[in-house]
Write a structure and sequence with these properties.
alpha+beta; 10 helices; disordered N terminus
Length: 244
Amino acid sequence: MPRRSDVAVAQRFLASTRLERHRHGIGYAAVVVAGSYVEAGDSGRFRLGAGSVVFHRAFEAHADQFGTAGADVLNLPLPIDAPDVPVAVLRDLDAVVRTAERDQLAASGLLSASCVAAADGPGDWPDLLAAALREDPSLGLTQWAEAAGLTVETVARGFKRAYGVSPKRYRADARALRAWRTIPGSPLPLAQLALNLGFADQAHMTRDVAALTGRTPASLRRTPRSEGQLDSRTLGRERLFREE
């Protein structure tokens, strides 16, 4: 469990620990201090090691499989100027850790300035399907499976092993996340926006966005969303949304 302090939130995961797919209602950055693990989530699947940083946006879901050495992870507030990537590598991990011992916000500020591009994830067919579902949440799974030379049953089983959720659920979550991020800044009527984003109708979008975030599209129009900030006080109170 997280150790609470006034400066940062540190977690130690034992060897071969698995965290089932879940989501956080607020955004944060996870810095891998030691060890390694594979994370599969709404932004893709990545192999993470010491110096990796994962930028978790609010309501994104992920599952984690830790390696034989486990891992030490430092959770920091999501930087306001976080790069538009899910994962990066820090040039100076020690500087971030030392700064976090004094000031978590200052440590968060170092992340964006010291990031370099990270390597791609495993890149096998579950990752290709995940990327396709994020790009086009209306994608037909049967057609995709046939084009890839796979059966629908193989796709369903293999994808769930890799991502901890069915392709249909992953597709629905991708669609709801895109709606949540698009609604506040879009001038389109909600009914038209729902169709543009691949929902059957406005009611369908309302159900899925409310299930994901607890807010309706209409309320997002009235009061724009906030990514939120993770600190040592909010982590202990935050609701985790576990995927079924």
